[in-house]
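User: Just a sanity check before I run the rest of the batch. Below are the C-alpha cells for the first item. I only need the designed sequence back.
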C-alpha cells in the first residue's frame, strides 16, 4: 500500500512540474498546462479515494497524535 501511495504522490508531483514547464514554454498559447493541471487534480482525488478505501478495509491504520 505504501508503494501505491508513493507512486500516486510522484505522479502528482510530475504532473505539477510538467504544468510549470508547459506554462513557461508555451506562454499560454496551448492547452497543455490546463491538461497537466487537470491530471494533477485527478491524481489527487484518486489518491484521496485510495487512502479512504485502504483505511476502510484495514490496509492502513491511523496512528493518531502522540
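Assistant: Here's the designed sequence for the first item:
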Amino acid at each position: 500500500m505504501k508503494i501505491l501511495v508513493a507512486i500516486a504522490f510522484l505522479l502528482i508531483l510530475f504532473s505539477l512540474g510538467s504544468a510549470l514547464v508547459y506554462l513557461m514554454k508555451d506562454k499560454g498559447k496551448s492547452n497543455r498546462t490546463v491538461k497537466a493541471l487537470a491530471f494533477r487534480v485527478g491524481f489527487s482525488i484518486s489518491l484521496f479515494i485510495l487512502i479512504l478505501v485502504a483505511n476502510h478495509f484495514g490496509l492502513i491504520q491511523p496512528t493518531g497524535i502522540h
